[in-house]
């Protein structure tokens, strides 16, 4: 596939190092078939897979600026700004989580040290995670997609039960699972290696000290309270919804049969899928495309026959001809 070769650079090699399926699978077959189809087109693959560190830094600055602004308004304004601040912070925590996802795929920068420095210090640690642990787990998800024993993001056996499998019941079942709630709320502070926990605590101790220097003891402590309140409520609620959007209700066995895109309204996309995270099928077919090119890639790929014929696109979240909450329950009988 000579046209694709320049794009399959060092990042693709790093993906291969982490993805270790023992045998050829339908997941791999879908990816190879899609790339063969791409090689027969004139699509600008190198442009789609190019890292743009400046764009990521801009978005990262915007996310943190909104978080700081929400905290400032909450600690200086009337009491009713506090719940609004929790919503804003929780949404931007989800946005940071999506940037962490790109860092794990080496998509922030072609320079490994720069990529991992940004991912580790500015995204992973404040998000209570280890970049390297996240990367290892997430690459297993790609390699073992849909395997009910080895895919770490396989939720069907957790959310589907005999009876009561409406979309709201499925969502609540996952939302109220203690393990998922604690995982979203405290990340690697629970169950992570001691060294990781110490790094996270050290980062937050330094951040609290900086906040204390530039504000007051109460305001600096309020930032911590808002951060964890947001993670345990809004961030967890959005993350649960997003996880269900990616694969739930689809048929394990391949990328096309088990991954979907959610192309909803712009406002709801910003809330549930900040930084284009709803183009999950595109991501699984070509994990070397950064988040800021996923929507463009989707539009290009609509001209590729196998994508046009086999791709699943939900055109809304709760309404429209094919909303994603209906897709959750389309094939419930396959899982129970």
TrEMBL record:
Name assigned to this protein: Fatty acid desaturase
Keywords: Membrane, Transmembrane, Transmembrane helix
Transmembrane segments: 64-89
KW Transmembrane (keyword) present: yes
Gene Ontology MF terms: oxidoreductase activity, acting on paired donors, with oxidation of a pair of donors resulting in the reduction of molecular oxygen to two molecules of water
GO cellular component, one term: membrane
Domain of life: Bacteria
GO annotation terms (biological process): lipid biosynthetic process
Record keyword Ligase present: no
Organism: Ralstonia pickettii (Burkholderia pickettii)
Domain Fatty acid desaturase residue range list: 79-308
């Amino acid at each position: 596939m000579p046209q694709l070769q320049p794009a399959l650079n060092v990042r693709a090699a790093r993906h291969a190092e982490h993805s270790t399926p023992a045998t050829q699978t339908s997941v791999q077959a879908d990816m190879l078939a899609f790339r063969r189809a791409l090689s027969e087109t004139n699509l600008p693959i190198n442009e789609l897979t190019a890292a743009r560190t400046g764009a990521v830094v801009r978005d990262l600055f915007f996310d943190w600026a909104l978080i700081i602004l929400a905290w400032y308004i909450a600690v200086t304004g009337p009491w009713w700004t506090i719940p609004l601040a929790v919503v804003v912070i929780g949404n931007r925590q989800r946005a940071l989580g999506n940037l962490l996802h790109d860092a794990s795929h080496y998509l922030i920068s072609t320079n490994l040290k720069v990529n991992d420095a940004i991912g580790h210090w500015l995204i992973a640690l404040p998000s209570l995670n280890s970049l390297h642990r996240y990367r290892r787990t997430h690459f297993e998800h790609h390699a073992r997609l849909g395997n009910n024993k080895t895919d770490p993001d396989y939720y069907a056996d957790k959310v589907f039960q005999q009876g009561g499998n409406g979309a709201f019941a499925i969502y609540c079942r996952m939302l109220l699972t203690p393990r998922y709630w604690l995982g979203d709320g405290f990340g690697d502070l629970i169950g992570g290696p001691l060294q990781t926990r110490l790094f996270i605590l050290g980062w937050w101790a330094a951040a609290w000290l900086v906040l204390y220097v530039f504000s007051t003891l109460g305001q600096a402590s309020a930032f911590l309270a808002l951060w964890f309140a947001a993670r345990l409520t809004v961030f967890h609620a959005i993350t649960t919804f997003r996880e269900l959007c990616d694969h739930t209700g689809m048929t394990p066995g391949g990328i096309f049969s088990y991954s979907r895109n959610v192309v909803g309204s712009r406002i709801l996309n910003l809330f549930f899928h900040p930084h284009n995270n709803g183009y999950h099928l595109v991501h699984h077919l070509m994990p070397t495309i950064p988040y800021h090119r996923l929507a463009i890639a989707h539009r290009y790929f609509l001209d590729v026959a196998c994508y046009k014929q086999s791709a699943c696109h939900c055109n809304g979240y709760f309404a429209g001809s094919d909303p994603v909450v209906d897709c959750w329950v389309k094939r419930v009988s396959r899982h129970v």
